[in-house]
Amino acid sequence: MNGAETLARERIFSDRLTVDAKGMLCIGGASVGDLLQRFGSPLVVGVEETLLANFERIRDAFGTAWPGPSAILYSTKSNDTLAFRHLLSRAGAGGDCFGEGELRSTLDSGADPSRVALNGSDKTAELIDLALVHGVTINIDAADEVDLIVAAIARTGSSARVNIRLKVLPDELGPYMGGSTQRHGQGIASVRRAKWGLGPDAAQQIAARLQQTQGLELTGFSVHIGHLSNRPEAFASIATAFGATVRKICEKLDLRPSILDLGGGWAREREPEQRGVPIERVTVETQVKAACDALASALGPLADPVEGPVPELWVEPGRYICGNAQVLLATVGSVKEDCGFRWVNVDISTNNLMRIETGAFEYQTLPASRMHDLFTTAQEIVGRTCFRSVVGAGRLLPKLVRGDLVAILDAGMYAEVFATQFNSMPRPAAVLVGAKGEIELVRVRETLADVFAHHRVPGRLKWPEKE
Ligand SMILES: Cc1ncc(COP(=O)(O)O)c(C=O)c1O
């Protein structure tokens, strides 16, 4: 086995990864060696075609499977690169936003505000004003949020569009919940304990109040349980429970929703979250069809075009769109062999891939400058910080030496957004490879001055002779 063969086995439809005659990995046609020479190491490399291919595929999957209109609201928390957000807004993606930063960057990128949802468990009055003024839909997550919205309608003179976020607890979901969710309770108990969403009774009370509220449109309901599994049955069980709860509330209150928001968590075909365990690749079309069929069936007349307009289906994919749209490149430094191990230090660390530390992610790591060399040696790929910083444990690769290049796949999701400066380490630069081969800087490399830019040393502690 070598890097090129591993890539051929692991490749998914939207990867733009090839190997040149010298055994160098190329990303979107650009040689990794050239990229690092030009922009320095380490480097995050984004690929426009990959991002857009993922977006189009999930958009088309919902367009085909749902009997009514549908919209993709890119979940910017998974990767907040402004260039990505602009590309997606130009392609027609709406947005799922938490907090002012995500909302402003989504709106500034040109996303259509009527396809933007504001989520969050503790929204401020200022944030609600901002949403109202721009015509953004608010996914309500608590009864006291209604008071804030009523006050915001009076203050801004704008009308409000709101969904109610439901908490659904389908028992059938239990077996699909693993990994980090188990820290918070066994199976579905961990969803019950999570702060998000409203149970059916609380949701119904809020809906009844909203129906009576002037200047406000109750557009529908939302749900998001989070990434659990790639199994179609898991998505179907959430959709069934969501649809049944919506139907019950709507029948009680004589409502017909115009929007239903099914949230994110749509699984990729290669997941660092699979933690090294081989997974059966399930296409997004299979997950989406299972969810849409289950939702339509649970909604009954609410999804029947003969009875009235079918609600617009919103979904909030993050990882599916950006997961493989960035590759993290690093260079090998010190190599040590002792006690039966070989430690290969690279100039990144788990600072740049925090989900290794917080979610036990395992990333596919390729020997980017030696893709034709046989895998001969198990090695610990380790980072520069004083954590253990295990980027890859016991990885079978060519015997790596100082100056070799490595590429970490799937570094597009929940990586840069979680990156830290632990050990006073500046964060890397990022470039974007365009569809026509353009290579452009989209995030400037941090310097040590950036790391300490917001620190202040009180005058009494300074050394006048030194500063
Ligand atoms: C409300 C909401 N929507 C969407 C997402 C995106 O999830 P994913 O990246 O798994 O698609 C999240 C992630 O936490 C979320 O909290």
TrEMBL record:
Its cofactor is pyridoxal 5'-phosphate. SUPFAM superfamilies: Alanine racemase C-terminal domain-like (SSF50621), PLP-binding barrel (SSF51419). InterPro entries: Ala_racemase/Decarboxylase_C (IPR009006), De-COase2_N (IPR022644), Orn/DAP/Arg_de-COase (IPR000183), PLP-binding_barrel (IPR029066). The modification N6-(pyridoxal phosphate)lysine is found at residue 77. Signal peptide: none annotated. The active site is at 386 (proton donor). It holds the Pfam family Orn_Arg_deC_N. GO terms for biological process: lysine biosynthetic process via diaminopimelate. One of its GO terms (molecular function) is diaminopimelate decarboxylase activity. Its EC number is 4.1.1.20. It comes from the Bacteria. Residues 54-322 form the Orn/DAP/Arg decarboxylase 2 N-terminal domain. Keywords: Lyase, Pyridoxal phosphate. It is an enzyme of class 4 (lyase). This is Diaminopimelate decarboxylase. It comes from Limibacillus halophilus.
